[in-house]
Each structure stands twice: as C-alpha cells, then as structure tokens.
Specification:
about 130 residues; alpha+beta; 2 domains; three-stranded antiparallel beta sheet; two-stranded antiparallel ribbon; 7 strands
C-alpha cells in the first residue's frame, strides 16, 4: 500500500521484496489524484525493472520474472540412522521407567508402543512382477 506519505524508499524496498517473492503483485494507492497515481505507477515500474500490467482505479498491478533460486545441496549429507529416546514402563507398578535409546534405520519405523518395525515393502503391480 502507498499511503499519505507517497512513494518513499521503504515502499520501494517492500515492493522489490514482494516482486522477488511473488512475481506478480497488487499495490493499493490511497491518493485521490489520478495523475499522481500514474506517476507512482511509472516510477515504480522504471525503478524496479518491472512491467506495468494494469491500473484500475486505486489498484496498480506490477509483474517481474522471479529470480531463479539456487538450491544448495550438501553432497556429504546422506540418509542415516536416527536415534530416539523411549520410556519403557515396568510391568510392575512401583518401579521407575527405563529410558532406552533406539536406533531406527531408513527402512524402519518406531511404533507408538516403542517398538521398531520394518517398513512394508513397496508394492509392485502384478504386471511388473510377471515381466
């Protein structure tokens, strides 16, 4: 939104951040002067290298292609075992619960009762099994 102060540096900064995040944005202008709104529209488009799409009343629409985000892949990272701490309660009433550390591998899961179970094998269709 562009308020009563007009087009300030903070408005440009927020508009730039919104264009980086979304690509297509709408900006509401709280000014009654149409000429002033058009000046804001052109100045924003020129200063932010954005394409002016539409100007309907007090609503301005700007578009800029989103920058390509680089994915940071850690090549040393591998899926490995995870350690979980589980409380095992005694079958006899008055004893302290025992804290056990269980290691769960990639093809295993931890049940609600604190047991380690293997995951179910991936189902293969009948046609693929035959070939």
């Amino acid at each position: 939104m562009i308020g009563g102060d007009g087009l300030t540096a903070n408005v440009k900064k927020e508009t730039d951040a919104a264009l980086n995040a979304h690509g297509l944005i709408k900006i509401r202008v709280f000014a009654d002067d149409r000429v002033q709104r058009e000046a804001f529209y052109k100045e924003l488009a020129d200063s932010l290298n954005a394409a002016p799409i539409q100007h309907i009343g007090k609503l301005l629409v700007l578009w800029r292609p989103m920058p390509v985000k680089e994915k940071t892949v850690d090549e040393d990272r591998m899926a490995g075992p995870r350690d979980f701490k589980v409380l095992k309660y005694s079958s006899r009433g008055g004893q302290r619960p025992e804290v056990k550390t269980l290691r769960v591998l990639g093809n295993q899961r931890l049940t609600a009762g604190g047991k380690v179970k293997r995951s179910k094998p991936k189902q293969i269709s009948v046609k693929k099994r035959q070939s």
